[in-house]
Structure formats: C-alpha cells, structure tokens
Write a structure and sequence with these properties.
The chain is α/β, with parallel strands linked by helices. The protein has a domain at 92-256: 3-Layer(aba) Sandwich (Rossmann fold), CATH 3.40.50.150. 22% of the residues lie in helices and 28% in strands. The two termini are 15 Å apart. Bound molecules: S-adenosylmethionine (SAM). The site of S-adenosylmethionine has 23 residues, from strand 5, helix 2 and strand 7.
Length: 258
C-alpha cells in the first residue's frame, strides 16, 4: 500500500463537504507550442517578444550572485517568472521550497497541475524529477506561453529537463478545472495565481475535488489580507494545513486531502 507523508492537524478542523462531480462542458486541447517566434537579444542582454520585455540579469534579490538569470516582466514591469539560464531552475524561493517538497514525496508517476503557469520556471524544474510524470500548466495570458517557448530556446539544452512532460493550456484557472473530465484527478495542484485581476478566487472546496485522496494543494500568497481569507477557506476544505512564511514576504500553504 502507498504511504503518504501526513501533515500536522490544523487547529480549525471542519468536516469535508461532499462534492458532486462536475461534467465537462467543452473538451480542452493543449496549446500548440510550435509556431512561436523567438525573440532577439541585444548586446545589453535585453530582448523583446510580442510586447514583453525579457531581461537577462546577473543577479537580483532572490538570486545567487553571478548566476545568469532570465526574468520575464509584464508591460507593467511586474516580474512573473525567473529562471537560472544554466540549468533552467526556478529562482523563486517559494517555488524552490514547493519543488523540493514534491521531489521528496514517496509517490511515483505524479500528475501536477499548475494554476498560474506564467513562463514555466517552476514547471521546468519539476519536469526534471523522476517521480513527476505529467505537468498541466494553465494560464489565462497567452503571452506567458510565448515567453515559455522563448525561454526554452534561450536556455541551454539539459538532458535532465524533460519539457515534453509539460502540457500548456490557455484558460482561466477555474474554467479549466470545470472543463477537465471528472476522472482527471491530480496528485498535486499548485495555486500560483496573482489576485491582481480583481476576480473572485476559486473555491478551495472545488480545488480539493480535483485532488486524489492523499493529494496536496500548494498555494503561494503574498498579501496578508489574501492570507487570512485563504487560511479560513483551506481550513474548511482540507484536514491538514500548514503555513510557511518566507523572509521575502511570500507565504506557502500546504494542504493535504485525506
Ligand atoms: C506568479 S505568476 C506564476 C509564476 C509561475 N508559477 C512560474 O513558475 O514562474 C502568476 C500567473 O497567474 C496568471 N493568472 C492570473 N489570474 C489567472 C486566472 N484566473 N487563471 C489563469 N491564470 C491566471 C498570470 O497571467 C500570471 O502568469
């Protein structure tokens, strides 16, 4: 029988609400990643791709010094993904933490869904792991996938990276979860969605219904107000909840479905 790590019980335990299976409305097809125009990088290490700015910098606050890092910025200047050029590993602290957590799980052939894929720095690192079989990356912004493809071209080929494990879906996260078949259950769902779009957040009860028994939801949060709302909701939806705070302001919530 499979064994799973069990998290400490949260103080606020509420029985799990039974969930009715959701029937898919529209079949979803992975994005075609072939026809992407690569960007050109100038001598200052800057490039442009469909209105986005891609920057290669030597370091920033989250990075090890002297490492080449690719940063993806939106038009507003927000950093959405960061990646070491040498080995395509993610440089976000919370993502590193989540990845190590996943790498150390005893399960094999795990399927992972990343809500808020951006340009896939976390996914690329996860794809190296032997215990990860498939990663579904969901993002509502198609420019993120163009940048993902660009990063694949920019970064060195590494035998350990298996980008073929990654399927990209351009969709709002909630509608993606509604449209997958009722049989599709993930071992792990990562919620890395920015709430800056002023949208009602997805219900964590609903996300829990898309996890296999024993599966995990890993959430990245920055704002304190979001944290309060989120902790309240996950304590209703999951029996085991654990909060980890990082010095740089990110918070990671690990929730396990029993
Ligand atoms: C913090 S970034 C994700 C970083 C990424 N996980 C990585 O590995 O680099 C947040 C992403 O969430 C996406 N996003 C925001 N709201 C969304 C929604 N409702 N559905 C799908 N994606 C969304 C944004 O387009 C953005 O790319």
């Amino acid at each position: 029988m499979k064994t799973r790590k069990t998290l400490k019980k949260s103080k606020h335990i509420v029985p799990i609400v039974p969930i009715v299976p959701i029937v898919p409305i529209v079949p979803i097809v992975p994005m075609n990643m072939e026809n992407v125009v690569p960007i050109k990088i100038d001598s200052r290490g800057k490039g442009c791709c469909q209105g986005f700015c891609l920057e290669i910098s030597k370091s920033n606050e989250n990075e090890k010094e002297n490492d080449n890092v690719v940063l993806l910025k939106t038009r507003k200047g927000t950093h959405y993904s960061a990646m070491q050029v040498q080995d395509r590993s993610t440089t976000f602290l919370y993502a590193n933490f989540m990845n190590k957590f996943i790498q150390n799980l005893p399960e094999r052939n795990m399927t992972i869904c990343i809500l808020g894929f951006a340009c896939g720095s976390q996914a690329l690192e996860l794809s190296k792991y032997r215990n990860v079989a498939r990663i579904d990356g969901v993002d509502m912004d198609p420019d993120m996938f163009r940048a993902f493809k660009t990063l694949l071209l920019l970064t060195k080929h590494n035998e350990q990276n298996d980008a073929n494990k990654i399927q990209c879906y351009e969709s709002d996260a909630e509608s993606f979860l509604h449209r997958i078949s009722p049989e599709t259950m993930y071992d792990i769902i990562i919620d890395d969605i920015f709430v800056e779009y002023d949208k009602v957040p997805i219900s964590y009860d609903f996300i829990a219904s898309k996890l296999k028994p024993g599966g995990y939801l890993l959430i990245n949060i920055i704002e304190e107000n979001d944290l309060k709302r989120c902790m309240f909701q996950v304590n209703h939806a999951f029996e085991h909840v654990q909060l980890i705070k990082f010095d740089n302001g990110n918070k990671c919530i690990i929730c396990q479905k029993v």
